[in-house]
């Protein structure tokens, strides 16, 4: 997993752990900008594309018919926990 996808997953896991709802694509983009120490916020379409890939890999899931419908899966939580231990 590349650094940007790892940052998206890390942000989503932290957000879901802190709140009882998932982050928006815009919130993820802003979080990635901070994590990667970038000067410019990544576009929503780029973040959405990467989120779709993380969904396909099983790290994030989308809850149908719900606002703020992105959630980190158990696989996502375990992956982030493993990286933080290293």
Summarize the structure.
The protein has helices at 3-18, 25-35, 44-56, 74-85, and strands spanning 60-62, 70-72.
Describe the structure.
The chain is mainly α and 86 residues long. The chain has one domain (3-85): Arc Repressor Mutant, subunit A (Orthogonal Bundle), CATH 1.10.10.10. Helices cover 60% and strands 7% of the residues. The protein contains four helices and two strands. It has helices at residues 3-18, 25-35, 44-56, 74-85; strands spanning 60-62, 70-72. Strands 1-2 form a two-stranded antiparallel sheet. Strand 1 and strand 2 form a beta hairpin. Helix 2 packs across helix 3. It is globular and about 30 Å long. 29% of the residues are buried. The mean pLDDT is 89.
Layout of strands and helices, then pairs:
Layout: H1 3-18, H2 25-35, H3 44-56, E1 60-62, E2 70-72, H4 74-85
CATH architecture, by name, is Orthogonal Bundle
Please state the structural category: mainly alpha
Total individual domains: 1
Q: What order do the SSEs take from the amino end to the carboxyl end, as H and E? A: HHHEEH
> What is the helix fraction of residues, given as a range?
55-70%
The largest sheet, given as strand count, sense and whether it forms a barrel, is: 2 strands, antiparallel
Strand sequence of the main sheet, in spatial order?
1-2
Question: How much of the polypeptide forms β-strand, as a percent range?
Answer: 5-15%
CATH topology: Arc Repressor Mutant, subunit A
Question: Mean pLDDT, nearest integer?
Answer: 89
Number of strands: 2
Tell me, briefly, the overall form: globular
């Amino acid at each position: 997993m590349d650094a940007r996808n790892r940052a998206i997953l890390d942000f989503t896991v932290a957000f879901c752990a802190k709140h009882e709802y998932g982050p928006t694509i815009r919130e993820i983009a802003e979080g990635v900008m901070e994590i990667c120490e970038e000067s410019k916020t990544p576009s929503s379409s780029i973040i959405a594309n990467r989120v779709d890939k993380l969904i396909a890999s099983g790290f994030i899931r989308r809850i149908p018919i719900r606002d703020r419908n992105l959630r980190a899966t158990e696989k996502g939580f375990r992956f982030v926990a493993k990286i933080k231990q290293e």
